[in-house]
Amino acid sequence: MTAKLAEALAGIVGPEHVSVEPGALAAHARDATPLFDAMPQAVVHPGSAEEVAAILRYATAEGVPVVPRGAGSNLCAGTVPLHGGIVLVLTRLNRILEVSRDELLARVQTGVPTAKLAAAAAEAGLLYAPDPGSHTVSTVGGNVATCAGGLRGLKYGVTRNYVLGLEAVLPTGEIIRTGGRLWKDVAGYDLTRLLTGSEGTLAVITEATVALLPKPETTGTGVAYFPTLADASRAVTAVIASGIVPATLEFLDQKCIAAVEEFAGLGLRADAGALLLFGDDGQAATVEGNLARIEGICADEGALEVTLAEDVARADALLAARRCSLPALSRLGSLTVLEDVSVPRHRLAGMVARIDEIAAAHDLLIATFGHAGDGNLHPTCVLDPDDGEAIERCHQAFAEIFSAAIALDGTITGEHGVGAAKLPYLEERLGGDQVALLGRIKRAFDPAGILNPGKLGS
Amino acid sequence: MTAKLAEALAGIVGPEHVSVEPGALAAHARDATPLFDAMPQAVVHPGSAEEVAAILRYATAEGVPVVPRGAGSNLCAGTVPLHGGIVLVLTRLNRILEVSRDELLARVQTGVPTAKLAAAAAEAGLLYAPDPGSHTVSTVGGNVATCAGGLRGLKYGVTRNYVLGLEAVLPTGEIIRTGGRLWKDVAGYDLTRLLTGSEGTLAVITEATVALLPKPETTGTGVAYFPTLADASRAVTAVIASGIVPATLEFLDQKCIAAVEEFAGLGLRADAGALLLFGDDGQAATVEGNLARIEGICADEGALEVTLAEDVARADALLAARRCSLPALSRLGSLTVLEDVSVPRHRLAGMVARIDEIAAAHDLLIATFGHAGDGNLHPTCVLDPDDGEAIERCHQAFAEIFSAAIALDGTITGEHGVGAAKLPYLEERLGGDQVALLGRIKRAFDPAGILNPGKLGS
């Protein structure tokens, strides 16, 4: 079976781009999600949309599962080949096809790393706004497939807001082009947005046209420490109510502050109950004015201390504090389960309080950081991987956390995706009628059910 | 048949909300699109999502077409009941359920007029950014169903960018809720965006949660006259390339300027080949700086004259000039066919040149105005409704205009929708494989094919 499959794939992409070696298969049995793995039968690296189409036609004809994958930095087991078959790695599609300053857009193959697109845009004096936490490793295709978010979601939106058009290959082998170079285009159902966030279950995305913005003139950053997360959350609400929508409003809870300070020694104030990192970008006078107002609001809401970064180096250090939350926490135990719930912004503190209660009830260390501006939290459980009983408690705790988020008008995933990890909770969020509809949409694209089975739409 | 239908509907919504009178049927046989009409069998005004669900269950069981409709201001025959059946008018669902300043959102029933939502937001110090040309009559539901655009598309995006969540009734009667009060939510396929722009062919949208923005501190407006539209288009490209994304960048061609001046006597300069209306909003210093830079760029690109509106009254007069383009043109003949193509921004002048060539070749008066910032043009043909031969030439001319737009990487509709009027051209834009996929998606929602037949997905 494997030999026949390898031969068929080699006939399409050339033998040098197919691997059935146990080491290569094992490397593609998992992504960045702990506790999920499954061996594929073959790993293939196509070099064009046409090759992807030929692979998918073969897979549909033979009933072989295909799991598309970029960098494999997925955090919800969205690229784990649960049912075996082919892992289709898109990293050879790594060309930036154009960056247009006149049109404020870029066209890239989807295997391009996000950071490479961002750098190419910056070189043209432009900004690619989406900046998921994994942007140094993730690919544009993975970002589109998961509708990746990031640190600038409130002001700038998420990946969805920047995708203008896609080239995608249907599981039955047709290559379609959706949208294009246009800011307004309503010809047909919005397949561009339907494919964005479809987690590799409807089509394989091979090219994306994305909107860019003029690069903001300046950026400013500040940090505020609060006695409790409730104080920080109140400050966030007050900032928004004052008419400011800042580019960055990130928080760390007390456990994260301690871990980050221990890890990176950035001089964070470890006695605080919460840290709020705020930033804005735009014209210098506006940024200066907004940061001063945020500083004042934080003080009014009981901040222990508020500091504006005096220079870019200090601002970068503060952003590094937020970005290194996960590695810092990872050091506390060798198994780190990072989750991703989202609630209405003003319910942030209530949600963290529920997370803390649930963690205590299950005797677990769960620290929480995330995007205060858009209510997107990353509760992170640190564990001993050999403690099966603790892992069981962790699963139970996260099931309760998902329910708690839903009860607060929230959702089970803000930006990571559903994947395999959260599929069991999807019906609680969407209801049975909507989940059934997702299945019918899935079958409209993928009648043979070969594309990323066991995930969305299954 | 009609009696049975009326009785069934009356049983659901009460007899006072069902009409089968010839006058009422005739009033719902057409929308704002000329040259399309078809009589329904009944007009029904449901008062709740549950009543909508009961109507749709009945329609699916009996195979009766249902055409959802808000204000009927559609411009592509999207709400004309081509196959008869029921016109489902949603204007009784006219409650604004909440406007939240803390959460920057509003939740409304979909029969609420767009202008009423905008006014409620303004009262709370907030901005509902989408502002389609028909906003004084159109409903939020119609805006969502068509993904309506408007004058602020470049800086602020279109309706899609503001829809956070929907309540919708499937043709088979299930009531689903998509998205919610969240800026980040990737649980499931993006049904919120799939329904946005689905033109009443997939589900009936009964409630929408929309994002609001803090109201900009100030607004400024200016006008520039150019010898030719090519000069104006070059200025638009230069503005964008300079790093400014202004809130408004509208244009009128020479024929529109003349018609508007004749109609409204606003003191427009009738010797110019093109008028560019520009505006921005935000903090006062930023707006002032941006308008001054745009003024300078227009002068550099050969403007005959550039004026900044010295006060709000003058700015409103200028905006009125743009907004009255359609009524002004309508006076030139009693039949006005308003179209809606979109091209990459820098191809605006090329597209207008093609439109002018095509109009001349067919001996037609086609004037063009539109959104220069996002490349969305509204070529408008003015005709004598009794001149069947001219109407035939008009159809032929628009078919050529759609082909020309596609050839310039553009699309057949930027913001009005496909409806019945442009369905014949959809395959030229999307290709046969994509049109077939739309049909499969349609059937995943509407197995009996009762919802707005003869439109998207048919």
TrEMBL record, chains A, B:
Swiss-Prot/TrEMBL keywords: FAD, Flavoprotein, Oxidoreductase
GO molecular function per UniProt: FAD binding; oxidoreductase activity
Ranges of residues in domain FAD-binding PCMH-type: 36-215
The keyword Flavoprotein belongs to this UniProt entry's keyword annotation: yes
UniProt entry tagged with the keyword ATP-binding: no
SUPFAM superfamilies (alphabetical): FAD-binding/transporter-associated domain-like, FAD-linked oxidases, C-terminal domain
InterPro entries: FAD-bd_oxidored_4_C, FAD-bd_PCMH, FAD-bd_PCMH-like_sf, FAD-bd_PCMH_sub2, FAD-linked_Oxase-like_C, FAD-linked_OxidoTrans_Type4, Oxid_FAD_bind_N, Vanillyl_alc_oxidase_C-sub2
Signal peptide residues on this chain, from the entry's feature table: none
PROSITE patterns (alphabetical): FAD_PCMH (PS51387)
Cofactors, names only: FAD
PANTHER family: GLYCOLATE OXIDASE SUBUNIT GLCD
Family per record: Belongs to the FAD-binding oxidoreductase/transferase type 4 family.
The protein, known as: Glycolate oxidase
Organism expressing this protein natively: Nonomuraea pusilla
